[in-house]
Write a structure and sequence with these properties.
homodimer, Glutathione-S-Trfase_C_sf (chains A, B), Glutathione S-transferase Yfyf (Class Pi), Chain A, domain 2, 9 helices, plasmid (chains A, B), 6% strand, Glutathione-S-Trfase_C-like (chains A, B)
Amino acid sequence: MAYELYYWDGIQGRGEFVRLALEEAGADYVDVTRQPGRGTGAMLEIMKSEGEPHIPFAPPFLKDGDLLIPHVANILFYLGPKLGLAPEDESLRFVANGLQLTITDFVAEAHDTHHPIDLSLYYEDQKQEAKARSSAFIRDRIPKFLGYFERVLTRNPQGPNHMVGNALTYVDLSLFQMIEGLTYAFPKAMKKSKAEYPALLALHDAVAKRPNIARYLASPRRLAFNEEGIFRRYPELDAGS
Amino acid sequence: MAYELYYWDGIQGRGEFVRLALEEAGADYVDVTRQPGRGTGAMLEIMKSEGEPHIPFAPPFLKDGDLLIPHVANILFYLGPKLGLAPEDESLRFVANGLQLTITDFVAEAHDTHHPIDLSLYYEDQKQEAKARSSAFIRDRIPKFLGYFERVLTRNPQGPNHMVGNALTYVDLSLFQMIEGLTYAFPKAMKKSKAEYPALLALHDAVAKRPNIARYLASPRRLAFNEEGIFRRYPELDAGS
C-alpha cells in the first residue's frame, strides 16, 4: 500500500524533507492534500478526529496502514531503513537521528527569523524584531550550524561524501534542502559564507545531480519556495540590508 | 558499564528529561559534569575533540560505551527499551517518539519566551520582546500544547493513566517535568489554567509519587529551578503582569 504523506498544500515547508526521501527512493506515495478531491480537508479530518487515538500535533505526518507518524525526524527514522536511506549499522542510526534533530532545530530557528514574537501575527507585525533576530541568525547561528555540519562531514571516517556511514542517507538529503532554503531566504549572506563550507556544498551539488532527485526537482511536484513557507525571501532581513 | 550523561552543570535544563528516565529505572549512570575531578571540562573535551567522529552539536548527550547519542528525544528513544520505559509494541515506539518531539518543540518555545531575539544576549537586553513573546506563549501556545496532550491522554485506548500504551513510559516522565517547569516559570498562568487539564495533572501527581522519582526529587541530585535554565521565573513575564 502506498505511503500517505500529509502536509499543508502550496509550500515545501517541513514536508519537503520527507518528500525528498520518498522521491530519492522511488517510493510509492501519495501527497494527500495535493490530490484532487482530497485536499487539506483530508488532513484536517485526521487532526480533528474524535476516533483516532494518536492524532498528530501538527503536519507533516505519514500514514502507513493504520500507523500515523508525526514529526519529520520521526518519519525519517521510521522510513529510512525501509527506503534504503538509513545506515545499515544500527548504532549509526542514532547518529543519523541526532544529526536530523540538529537540522530540525536549525529549521525552527530559520522559521523564527520571520516570526520571532508571535506565530498568530503576520511577519509585517513583527518586522523590527524579525530584523534583529535575522541579524543574530546570520551572524551567529548559520556559521555555528553549517560549521558544525562541515566538521562532521569532513571527519566522517568513511569519507566526506556522506554525513554518516559510507552511503547516501536521508540526512544528506535534508542538508541539501537546508542549503537550498537558506540560499533562497538569505542569498547575500549565503553567497558570502559559502566558500567556508566546501564539503557541504559538494554534498549539496552531488544530491542535486542524483537522477531521481534531479527528475523530482524538474517536475511540478517540486513547488517553488514562497513567502508562506519556512524559508522566506524578505530582502530586508538578508545580510547588508 | 554505567551510562554517562553529559550536560551543563548547575541547571536542570534539557538534561533533566534524561535524568528522570535514568532515575525511574534505577539505572547505573554518571552525571559526568557534576563529578569532582571531571566537571564541564570533560564535556567540552568531547565536544571539541579532533578525533571523535560523531561530536554532538550541543548537550545533553549520552555515552554508552563507544556510542555518543545527542538530543533528548534521541537519547530516550535509545534508552527507552533498555530501561523498560518504552512501549513494547514497536509501532507505538514511533508514537512515543512523536509525542516526545512535540515536547521538544514545547520546551524550545518555553526557552524562547526569555530569549526571543538573540541567544548571545542576556534576557535583560531583550526584555520588551520577551514580554511580547511570553504573552503569546501564555495566551496561545500553552493552551494549544497542553490541550493537545490532555486530548491524547484521555483518548489513550489503554486508559488515561499513561500517554501511550498501558504502562509508564519516558513520555509520561517528560510531561511531568514540562508541567513542573511551566509551573515554576509561569505560576499565575498555570494556576489559572490547571483546571482545564485534569488528566494531565493527575498524571503529573502520579509520577511525582513513584518511589524512585520521589526519592530522586528529595535528593541533592535534583537541582532547584533557577534563572540559568530553560524555565525561568521572571514575574514580569507571567500572566497579569
